[in-house]
Specification:
heterodimer; A: about 300 residues; mainly alpha; two-stranded antiparallel sheet; 11 helices; about 70% helix; B: about 425 residues; alpha/beta; Rossmann fold; 2 domains; elongated
Chain lengths: ~300, ~425
């Protein structure tokens, strides 16, 4: 097949949009792992729950299609913040009910609990909305921009921008605020942090709140982007996002972002140049190869050194 | 713990995929009455009746239930025996599942009152069930499996693991070699399409149908721009569709089901500017779920159903009316097929009972009479089985989605 630069650029946009969604989910994985070294497998399902919450809020607002004018800002703001708050609370509740009690248990116990939570959430969503993909209202007008011969949809720009903005905000929060400092201290040494007067229960709960809220935002964005949602979405997306976090260096916010975009790009390019059925094979092969040469991911783990 | 991250991914992925394969438990009441004169005879019905497949599976199940209820009202076997159904679901987490189907068949086999079964709906489920029914000598008639390898050639022989010379599997619908070829004919002659891109879901049914379509369309002089396979649970098709759009196809063909990606692909075609390009598929996307998932983009899709359209056939009028009166809803694309399958089995029960001096017949007797079915009067016309277990009167209906609804635009009679 001859190389077509326009098509390549078009696939770049597709890959970055898909990667933006992975990146938003990966941020939550990486934050939780960074602070308590738990792979929160329920996180992918919290993301799906985000689309379900968004859909419920949109239904309450009576939105069934594209919204225009000033109402658009109101609808988007209410939905996205609503979904973020509800998902954030879900994350906090999961942490409080399931993970907190197991904080000092062997690592395998919370991991299995996380898988259990994932199944519980999936089945709750199955019960709530049924097993078929559900249409999601378009909400945002979707003009297309043409950049040379490449077509970019407004939805795609939204996904990519939102992922970058939220990552930057999060980075600033973790490294420039007192609460962020408390999170880093807790990640470094829970006992010492506690002795220094940091309430580690609150700090860990805050981590789950923020991580899950980001999944809520990702949920809204993916609902708008794909125009549909499905109770089982979180399994595949969660696995890819987790892979993104590992690829970039788990615990590292910028790494999660980089990993997310990379995996989206690898998937799109595999589909274009090799074949759609090979996309998962290539993604995980790249992961294995990267881990062989850089066991702590592309940007390295951001975990503080433990003595 | 840091080095164990990749192992953890593998462990978790494995655990999750294993648990996705476990089947839901099913209960059965076994009423052993072998050898007695009188008692209960059951038809085991295995179909996907929950989840994404329910919109097509449930009306199919209703067809079989109606046949049994009518037989009881009309004094089945002189009133000495009571007919019953054992209804099981082979969908796990909302989707047909070969492991669940096999489990259900084991349940039927262990229930001595089950003398024949109707099902399954999906070809990959049939592949896991045929070795079991072949071993047990339990006759099964599928209302809707269309994959060729279930009845034809080496593939079919391999499925008959216990008794290679005995066939226990029959179907009243048209197989994919005929469905795929007919779709290629429609695409080339009726719709005048020249360049088509083919996608399939890499399942037994979807890939089989797509391969036949691919080969037949080339034979008719058409161009197949490419043939891609999607993966299970995939939701993002934009990269694939962007690649397809760059080749300017006249149409996109999809071999697969709505639940394995058909609806979402059609919906996302609009996102990459293929919304006006015709979308073709087989009976896998003929359920109502397709329009729901594809939304406004569903219009301009063509699909076949591997059976005649019951609502248009004079022979099916009384069945369609009885179905409406009983279930307060319209018949599904495969309701009449399941009704016919159950009717054929009931007729075989009666002959076997008469043969056995009014006593409970064996599964072997029933199988013998089902295999010998010829010119059986049914809502879908005169049905018989050839030596492979295929119907001797293959028929297809051609549907087109217009204004968000499917319309039957043709009924195609094929050579057997």
């Amino acid at each position: 097949m001859h190389f077509d630069p326009v098509l390549f650029a078009q696939q770049l946009v597709n890959g970055l949009s898909l990667g933006g969604i992975y990146a938003l989910i990966a941020l939550g994985y990486t934050m939780v792992y960074g602070i308590i070294e738990l792979i929160n497998f329920a996180h992918g399902d919290v993301y799906t729950l985000g689309t379900f919450f968004s859909l419920a809020i949109l239904t309450l607002l009576g939105v069934t299609g594209v919204v225009t004018g000033p109402m658009l800002i109101v609808v988007v703001a209410v939905t996205i913040f609503g979904a973020m708050i509800l998902c954030g609370l879900t994350g906090v509740i999961i942490e409080r009910l399931a993970y907190r009690r197991l904080r000092n248990a062997p690592k395998l116990a919370p991991l299995i609990t996380a898988i259990g939570m994932s199944f519980i959430l999936e089945n709750l969503m199955l019960y709530w909305k049924g097993p078929s993909p559900i249409p999601f209202p378009a909400v945002i007008p979707n003009p297309e921009f043409t950049l040379g011969a490449v077509t970019i949809q407004a939805k795609q720009v939204m996904v990519i921008l939102l992922a970058i903005v939220l990552m930057v905000v999060l980075q600033a929060f973790v490294y420039n605020t007192k609460l962020g400092k408390a999170m880093r201290a807790t990640a470094q040494d829970k006992d010492a942090a506690q002795l220094m007067g940091i309430d580690i229960n609150t700090t860990i709960a805050l981590t789950f709140l923020i991580g899950s809220a980001l999944a809520g935002a990702a949920g809204f964005v993916s609902g708008v982007y794909y125009g549909s949602t499905w109770f089982f979405n979180g399994f595949g997306a969660g696995l890819k996002a987790f892979t993104a976090a590992v690829l970039g260096g788990i615990g590292n916010l910028a790494g999660a972002m980089l990993g997310g975009f990379l995996i989206g790009l690898i998937e799109a390019m595999t589909t274009q140049f090799i074949g759609d059925q090979w996309s998962n094979v290539v993604v995980f092969s790249v992961l294995v190869i990267v881990l062989i040469f850089r066991p702590s991911g592309l940007l390295g783990e951001a975990l503080p050194n433990k003595v | 713990m840091r080095l164990s991250v990749p192992q953890a991914i593998l462990a978790v992925a494995l655990a999750a995929s294993l648990s996705a394969c476990t089947s839901s438990g099913s209960s059965s009441s076994s009423s052993a009455s072998s050898g007695a004169s009188g008692g209960t005879i059951k038809i085991g019905v295995d179909l996907p009746v929950s989840g994404a497949d329910a919109s097509i599976g449930l009306p199919t199940q209703n067809g079989a239930v109606l046949a049994v209820e009518e037989a009881n009202q009309n004094g089945f076997a002189g009133g000495k025996f009571k007919l019953d159904t054992s209804l099981l679901d082979d969908a796990v987490q909302g989707k047909h599942d070969p492991a669940a189907g096999a489990q259900n068949v084991k349940t039927f086999i262990s229930d001595s009152a089950v003398l024949a079964m109707v099902g399954p709906f999906n070809s990959n489920v049939a592949k896991s069930e045929i070795p079991l029914t072949n071993d047990a000598g339990l006759a099964q008639i599928s209302p809707s499996n269309t994959n060729d390898g279930l009845t034809i050639g080496e593939d079919a022989k391999k499925l008959r693991t216990a008794h290679p010379d005995v066939n226990s599997y029959f179907r009243v619908c048209t197989r994919d070699a005929k469905q795929g070829a007919a779709l290629a004919q429609v695409a080339s002659d009726r719709l005048k399409l020249k360049k088509i891109f083919v996608i399939d879901d890499n399942e037994t049914y979807g890939k089989g149908l797509a391969d036949v379509f691919d080969a037949s369309f080339r034979q008719l002089g058409g161009t197949v721009l490419g043939h891609e396979h999607i993966t299970a649970n995939q939701v993002d098709f934009k990269a694939l569709l962007t690649k397809i759009k760059a080749q300017n196809p006249d149409a996109v063909f999809f071999g697969g089901n709505t639940s394995t990606g058909g609806g979402l692909i059609r919906r996302q075609m609009a996102d990459v500017g293929l919304g006006k390009t015709p979308f073709l598929g087989g009976d896998g996307i003929s359920d109502d779920e397709f329009e729901k998932q594809a939304g406004d983009s569903a219009n301009g899709s063509y699909m076949t159903v591997a059976s005649p359209d019951a609502t248009k056939l004079p022979s099916a009028k009384s069945f369609v009316d009885a179905y409406k009166a009983r279930f307060k809803s319209d018949v599904g694309p495969y309701s009449a097929n399941a009704y016919t399958a159950a009717k054929i089995e009931i007729a075989a029960f009666e002959k076997a009972i008469a043969d056995n001096g009014g006593k409970m017949p064996t599964r072997g007797d029933v199988l013998k009479y089902i295999a010998a079915t010829k010119e059986f009067e049914s809502p879908i016309g005169k049905v018989g089985f050839d030596a492979n277990g295929d119907t001797t009167s293959p028929v297809l209906s051609l549907l087109n989605v217009r204004g968000g609804k499917k319309v039957v635009i043709d009924v195609i009679q094929l050579k057997s």
